[in-house]
Amino acid sequence: MMILTDEEKAMAAGDSGEAVAAAMETLMEYGRILGAERLVLTDNVAGANIFGKRHSKVLGSTDPKSLFSRFSLNSDKPLDVPMARAHSCQLIGPRDSKHYRLQGLSDADHAEASASEQYLASLGVSILNTCTPYQVGNNPRLGEHCAWMESSAVVYINSVLGARTNTEGRESSAAAMLTGRIPYAGLHITENRRATDLLVVDRPIETTSDWNVLGYYLGGVLGDSVPALSSSFPLSPDPVSLKQFGAAAASSGDVELYHIPGITAEAHTLEEAFGGRQPRQTVHFGEKEYTETVDALNATATGTDIDFVMIGCPHASLNQLRDVAALLEGRTISPDVALWVFTASALRDVAERSGWLETIERSGAKVLSDTCPAIGQFLPPGTRRFATDSAKQAHYLPAIAGVEGRFGSTAMCIEAAVKGRWSA
């Protein structure tokens, strides 16, 4: 049985209203499943609580309060939800507020999602609408207890920043938002953050594409472990490479935390990463593994014609937007190809002011925000085969949308968009 403070007991008893009591019920049940003995304070929550037509169709109502009560608090009764107790932000959502028609959404669909968004904002939630809140200002500190959804964001803040979160669901993150609590279990506990397995890198890892491939291999062979990396070659990833690496590892496996001694937040040495213990297992990544992993990422493709090129999973950084603009400068994409670049709306605004948006869209491409094809479940009409520079998207989109996928570097993807075919 979980030990609650007096304040937590009062919330559970309904002293702060039915919605908070429902949230506490969720956290206590969740904590029992995790084996948590208590809750821990959190003041940084990242959830996904914008609802659209898929949800309202199930509920039979477009009322934002009813939708939040049902899908975030598991209540069939519409509850009066108070302001968020913890600082909270909205992750990636179902639609682009500017280009929703490009997604195939109607004005009514857009209005429904907007009403849900406005309701969430009225609760004090920051509407960041991105899978990369750390790229637009939400950077939790070392050791800070958080309650975040979104696997690629979780592995980034755990590993690169040294914050502490498990991969939460909609209900647990909504409960944390209203109570400022989350079960003290999993990666909130120091001992559980020690490395368990060792990945020895036996080839140079130099490009962001290489880091995608390495991450996809790591997740596939080590699953839900806490890996540490070792290499006789210099490892010097930039933030984009770390973002792509973690997203790939969380897609092919269930990696929520990794250690690269001297680079990530919590370990300067391998001994520190493992806490003095020996690795449970050691795996190697060399030329053979690299080639096999690239082949696996391209396994669904049966031809070279490309209909759609998708860049920005997880959402593209400013550096990535700048690089895409440079690759497209003075060029025009094939009339048979749709090139869509996805980023946070805040970064799209910066790209517009910087002139990169104009350069990208002059080529015939589009820059979208707030969503992505996997989350929003949309593709350009007639898409049969797509290309992407994201191992995560190459992993998910063929299964979600029933299309073929090609994986390669950003430059390779831009070439495919211009030529209409994959020539790597």
Question: Which assembly state applies to the chains in this document?
Answer: single chain
Question: Alpha-carbon distance between the termini?
Answer: 58 Å
Which residues form runs of ≥5 with pLDDT under 50? none
Total strand segments: 13
Percent helix range: 40-55%
| Beta strand % | 5-15%
Q: Give the overall shape.
A: globular
* CATH fold category name of the largest domain: Aconitase, domain 3
Task: Let me know the largest β-sheet.
Answer: 5 strands, parallel
Tell me the number of structural domains: 3
Instruction: Give the rounded overall mean pLDDT.
Output: 97
What's the tally of helices? 17
Order of SSEs, N→C? HHEEHHEHEHHEEHEHHEHEHEHHEHEHEH
Q: What would you say the CATH architecture of the largest domain is?
A: 2-Layer Sandwich
Structural class: alpha/beta
Strand order of the largest sheet: 11-10-9-12-13
Please tell me how large the radius of gyration is. 22 Å
State the CATH class of the largest domain. Alpha Beta
Description:
There is one protein chain. It contains 17 helices and 13 strands. The chain has 424 residues and is of the alpha/beta class. It has 3 domains: 185 residues, Aconitase, domain 3, CATH 3.30.499; 103 residues, no CATH class; 122 residues, Aconitase, domain 3, CATH 3.30.499. A 5-stranded parallel β-sheet has the order 11-10-9-12-13, with helices on both faces. Strands 3-2-4 form a 3-stranded parallel β-sheet, covered by helices on one side. The longest helix is centred in the N-terminal third of the chain and has 17 residues. The termini are far apart.
